[in-house]
Input
Amino acid sequence: MTTDETAALADRLLAGSTRALARGLTWIEAGGPRAEALSARLYPHTGRAHVIGLTGSPGSGKSTLARALATAARARGLTVGIVAVDPSSPYSGGAILGDRIRMNDLALDPGVFIRSMATRGALGGLCRAAADAVDLLDAAGWNLVLAETVGVGQDEVDVMRLAHTVVVVSVPGLGDDIQALKAGLLEIADVHVVNKADREGASRTVAELRAMLTLLPVPPGAALPPVLACTAARDEGVEAVLEAILGHMAALKTSGDLERRRARIAEARVLKIAQELAAEAVARPRSDAAGRLLAEVTRRELPPHACARRLLAEATTAHGGDPDG
Amino acid sequence: MTTDETAALADRLLAGSTRALARGLTWIEAGGPRAEALSARLYPHTGRAHVIGLTGSPGSGKSTLARALATAARARGLTVGIVAVDPSSPYSGGAILGDRIRMNDLALDPGVFIRSMATRGALGGLCRAAADAVDLLDAAGWNLVLAETVGVGQDEVDVMRLAHTVVVVSVPGLGDDIQALKAGLLEIADVHVVNKADREGASRTVAELRAMLTLLPVPPGAALPPVLACTAARDEGVEAVLEAILGHMAALKTSGDLERRRARIAEARVLKIAQELAAEAVARPRSDAAGRLLAEVTRRELPPHACARRLLAEATTAHGGDPDG
Output
């Protein structure tokens, strides 16, 4: 990789090349200095897309809803990029996590781009990769960027913290709601959707969710997030969900909350990267300096705090600072 | 705080003063440079205690088991220090988290020391404080140091990773086992205990746990962790649990696995501290340099990766390096 190659790819991506976008996402997925350099170069061109986080328990029909929302958004003339960060997502279908996966009505629509992201080990690389992927779609000019996760782990909650509008999908029956509550998703949802509303108990689940929301602390005068029922597989109620999502963004803009949300997203993202850098600094191969320092800790010759500081200091200087300089 | 004060407290603690130990733990609980300096000074004197992690779902009778184990260990002439890092622990009883809490038979025994640790916010400070508290008890010469947590969150799992012997407590009924499995505790347990074995279904729970353990990957020739039933409240089966715990340590020593375990503990601990330093670097008050850098990220003037590196670089130099130098 050369800086020239990064610059050329960024230029083609900014010019609207879908091939360049797909290649860039492959870089992001692989991680490392190349991904960081590309991200740094594209970052100034981000900030135009409406980033929507979509999460819910497995079986909530999240992917079907994402597809239905994309279709509804296309009818309004909006382009839609979807990043599915669930490795078991139907988009990947166990095949190569390639460029656009052709699916149903959306297959031949150049206004829709779908990409699955594989996890990168246990060190939280998924969240960083997802954030960088969202940036690439944003920089490439997609209007709506939908980041889809299975919301059961902390990593998935962290991905949601990077969105302007967080949509949490439940299904009739209390189990999923409790799951969402436990994972801290209830608090961060901007729009609640009860999917598969043709099933028994849908209206009760809507009522229960609304009751739970009244128990959360909210700023004075703030509205509770809407709770909407839909059946994405039959395309019933999806238009109202899209309306609520776009309405949330419009409200963020008029209230001035958008700037606060952007600041919160930036902070959450930097925090996540800082923690990953810390984890990487400690998890380096045993052959190098990190291994020697850790051995000193094991032998009680170096206190753990001092070791952590030294590893971090090395990690922050190892890359020579700003990668796009 | 002066370096002299830290040195004096450390000396008294090493000389066996229980008052100095209690005061040191208060420093640790409060955190900051003073806690770090005390930890660094005492760290070379650690490594003699057998550190036992004890965890289980709320209601598993963990605290009762800890007390029963302490009584059994005292009968063998071993001294026991208990650090309860569950803020809702019965040891604290909602009162001041003070020195020794007097309880039943153990109340007047100078060979038992019990201390509750309060959480320090959401940034994972609990784990660091617990590790430092264990060190203080170790340096003060306690034979067994028991770190007790409620094993439902990642933070609690992290505390367990700092122990030589991890004891996971379940109760009859499958729910708790699944909970333990989900939290990643099944994999890290060295001894499984099914407490409240006088309840219906205890033998089935023991059998289910054993069956689950056979599904985990183990090195060739490695023994499965024992699964023991007991009723701590009636002091039934507790002696066998203590025997299994001490037997685990003996096996670590004879197999040479103890050194590997010590290395793993050192690494887990340094990792945790590094991640906390990262979180602290980002979470600093908005008025200072961190806030300005984050604002640049929000305005798309500085890429998130570059911001994370700069915040970490500042965090690692802010304290002037080795705090005990």
The beta strands of chain A are 50-56, 80-84, 112-116, 144-150, 165-170, 191-194, 227-229. The domain at 47-255 of chain A is CATH 3.40.50.300 (Rossmann fold). The two ends of chain A are 15 Å apart (CA to CA). Chain A touches chain B through 52 residues (CB under 8 Å).
